[in-house]
Design a protein that fits this description.
By secondary structure, this protein is of the alpha/beta class. The chain is 40% helix and 22% strand. A hairpin with a 2-residue loop joins strand 2 and strand 3.
Amino acid sequence: MSLLFSNATVLPMTAPKDGVPYFTGWVGVEANRVALVTASQAEADAFRRTHPDLREIDCRGRLVMPGLVNTHCHAAMTLQRSYADDIPLMTWLNDYIWPFESRQTPDDVALGMTLGIVELLLGGVTSFVDMYYFENRCVEVVEGLGIRAMLGCNYFDSNVDEVFPQIEEAVQLAAAGSGRVRIAVAPHSPYTVSPRNLERGKDLADRYGLHLTTHIAETQDEMRIVRERYGCTPVEHLDTLGLLDRRCIGAHCVHVGASDIGILASRGVTVSHNPQSNMKISSGVAPVEALRRAGALVTVATDGTCSNNDLDLWEELRTATFLQKSATGDPTALPAWEALRMATVNGARAMGYADGDLGVLREGALADLIVVDLQKPHLQPLHDVVSNLVYCGKAADVETVVVDGRIVVEERRVVGVDLPDLYGRVAAAVRRITTGK
């Protein structure tokens, strides 16, 4: 079925820096591609004539824009939401999170992934980069719910030989699917994975043409451990091992100095900024403005739901902009338009999509888009639509979500998902994991 979104405020994310970013018009979808982006009534009428079976959706009072891209999360950790809060990071990991994870089954992870994807979709996220266990089992979940994903198979020294076969299985499963799922190699960090196993992961990624994603320079503890072991920063360590290139997504990058920033920018590494998680676990504030000035590709993400505690990317946008203004003492730092690009255009590039193929509304681009209801008290009046979205927008403002040309959320309902049943299964799984009953 073809789709036509009519009478919408259209925000295609294709405007030049000083251009007009939005207009009133129409967006047409044919198969899995955007086939029309126009302010012309005549062109909209022509689209209707050539697509007699189309479904037309009146978007008066609504905005149509590309779906959001979350470049770092642990979606299945929804099972651990609010399980261990207000605890120092290493205690949090060693005494709570890792023991919980050791009791999870692959089915539990798939269930947590389901809940996470539902939350992402309802918040207008159409693509996400994940990092967790049993991602080979999650390929089917992603395919079934209709989202676009890069699933990073997480490993430590302790489980590397178990995970590498899962990566190869996941690659085969993704290749046989819709094309919406990509696989990544995901060593946990330079302080939990040895140099040899980091290099093995990079070799595997290169063999299959995969991205590699890892945590980099997240905390002061990580900085201390890496310097004590290897006599350098985490960025320098990973660079020496050959892990840093355009297919690398580095999460956090909070504690990076001028030399580190230069390396990240020159190697083309994506920096995934996770402001609320960094705040919650007291990691610090990433130097996003310095990274951007150096030419690094900076994106935005939520991290997992036990260090955030949600997957609301709109909140991250607001927080990211405010933090940079506060940290730099410059009210012009990270303006709204650039923040929104981090969550759309930049995120698509980070996932390896060609410029103009994802993260924008242009004819020929993949049809991943969202409809945002502007008729909300916190979004009125409309002095500046972009500022309203970034500084005032909320996940609950997203009304309709289309991924790959298919409606997956309509009137804030996820197609094919029985939410009460899902919540019941989640509660039962968490009860078994935490109590053994």
